[in-house]
C-alpha cells in the first residue's frame, strides 16, 4: 500500500486523506498529531498525475462533476425492502467491474439496510463500543465505523471518473455539494467542514462546545473507494433512523459532535421525499439520470 497521506494516529486533527493500493483509492478521514503536516495535506489534491498540487478548500471548489459529452445518463435504481450488507457489496463489486469493462452504465443505487455497523479501512476497534449489539462488517470503503439501518437512506454511487475528472478531492467535494443541495431542498442548511468529511448541521438551540464554537451534528456521511477510477460505496443521509443505534460506536471516529436526522430536526419527511430531493440535486451536480 502506498500511503499518500498519513492517517489514523489517534489524535486531535482530521483531514481528508487518500490511500492507493492495487489500482484502488480509498477516501477517508485520517488523523494526525502533526498539525503542520495536516494543514499542508489539506491543500494537496490527488489528480490525474497522482502528484501533489495546491488546491482550493473543498468549500471553494467547483461543485459540477459532469460526464463527457455524449455519455449515457446515470442509471437510478431504488431497491425494494431492506438489503443485506453482503448482498449490497457483492452487487457493487460486480457492477463496478462491468462499468470498468464498458458493459454496464454508471449507477446510483438507493438502499435501506437492516441495523448493522460497518468498519472502514481506518476503523479503530476501540470505537466499537457495543460489538454484540448489531452485526459488524469490515468493508473496503474509506473511513471508520458507521451505522446503517432502517430510516437511513444509503446511496451507493458507481461512477466512472475517467468520463468526468480523475480528481479525488473534486469528487468528494461534489458528493458533499449533492448532499447539501438535497438538504436545502428540504429547508435544512447543511455545511462542510474542512477538517472532516461529511455534512453537518449547526444546533444553535444547544449550549456551545467548550471551545466556544457552536454545537453541531452530523446528518450525512461519505465513504468511498475507487477501483481504476470507478467509484463504489457512497453516501448516507439520516432521514428517520433510531439515533440511539449510533451510541454503539464512535461514528466516524468523531467524539466532539453528535448525530442528527431530518425528523430529529423537526421535518416530517418520508424516504420518498428524500429520494426525490436526492435525484433532483444529483442531476444538478453530476448530470442527467434514467430509470
Structure notes:
By secondary structure, the protein is α+β, with helices and mostly antiparallel strands. Mean pLDDT is 81; it is low at 1-22 and 28-55. It is built from four helices and 15 strands. Strands 1, 2, 3, 4, 5, 9, 10, 11, 12, 13, 14 and 15 form a twelve-stranded mixed β-sheet that branches. A three-stranded mixed β-sheet has the order 7-6-8, with no helix packed on it.
SSE inventory with pairings:
Elements: E1 2-3, E2 13-21, E3 24-32, H1 35-42, E4 74-78, H2 85-101, E5 107-111, E6 116-119, E7 136-138, E8 145-148, E9 152-158, H3 168-185, E10 191-193, E11 196-202, E12 216-227, E13 230-238, E14 258-259, H4 271-286, E15 289-290
Helix pairs in contact: 3-4
Outline of this structure?
By secondary structure, this protein is α+β, with helices and mostly antiparallel strands.
**Biggest sheet details:** 12 strands, mixed
DSSP E strands, number: 15
Order of helices and strands: EEEHEHEEEEEHEEEEEHE
Helix content: 10-25%
Low-pLDDT ranges? 1-22, 28-55
Structure class: alpha+beta
Q: Which shape, going by the Cα principal axes?
A: globular
Distance between the termini: 38 Å
Overall pLDDT: 81
Radius of gyration: 18 Å
Specify the number of helices. Answer: 4
Key descriptive features of the protein:
291 residues, alpha+beta, 4 helices, 20% helix, disordered N terminus
Amino acid at each position: 500500500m502506498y500511503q499518500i497521506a498519513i492517517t489514523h494516529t489517534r489524535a486531535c486533527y482530521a483531514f481528508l486523506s487518500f490511500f492507493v493500493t492495487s489500482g484502488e483509492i480509498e477516501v477517508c478521514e485520517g488523523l494526525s498529531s502533526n498539525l503542520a503536516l495536516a494543514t499542508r495535506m489539506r491543500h494537496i489534491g490527488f489528480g490525474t498525475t497522482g502528484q501533489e498540487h495546491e488546491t482550493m478548500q473543498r468549500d471553494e471548489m467547483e461543485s459540477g462533476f459532469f460526464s463527457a459529452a455524449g455519455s449515457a445518463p446515470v442509471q437510478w435504481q431504488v431497491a425494494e425492502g431492506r438489503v443485506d450488507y453482503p448482498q449490497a457489496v457483492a452487487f457493487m463489486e460486480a457492477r463496478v467491474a462491468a462499468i470498468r469493462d464498458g458493459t454496464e452504465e454508471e449507477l446510483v443505487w438507493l438502499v435501506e439496510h437492516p441495523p448493522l455497523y460497518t468498519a472502514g479501512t481506518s476503523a479503530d476497534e476501540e470505537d466499537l463500543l457495543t460489538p454484540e449489539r448489531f452485526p459488524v462488517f469490515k468493508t473496503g470503503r474509506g473511513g471508520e465505523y458507521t451505522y446503517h439501518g432502517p430510516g437511513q437512506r444509503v446511496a451507493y454511487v458507481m461512477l466512472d471518473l475517467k468520463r468526468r475528472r480523475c480528481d479525488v478531492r473534486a469528487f468528494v467535494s461534489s458528493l458533499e455539494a449533492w448532499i447539501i443541495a438535497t438538504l436545502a431542498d428540504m429547508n435544512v442548511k447543511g455545511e462542510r467542514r474542512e477538517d472532516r468529511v461529511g455534512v453537518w448541521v449547526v444546533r444553535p438551540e444547544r449550549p456551545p462546545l467548550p471551545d466556544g464554537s457552536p454545537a453541531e451534528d452530523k446528518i450525512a456521511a461519505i465513504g468511498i473507494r475507487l477501483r481504476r477510477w470507478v467509484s463504489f460505496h457512497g453516501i448516507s443521509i439520516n432521514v428517520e433512523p433510531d439515533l440511539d443505534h449510533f451510541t454503539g460506536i464512535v461514528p466516524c471516529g468523531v467524539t466532539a459532535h453528535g448525530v442528527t436526522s431530518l425528523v430529529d430536526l423537526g421535518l416530517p419527511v418520508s424516504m420518498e421525499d428524500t429520494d426525490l430531493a436526492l435525484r433532483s440535486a444529483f442531476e444538478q451536480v453530476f448530470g442527467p439520470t434514467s430509470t
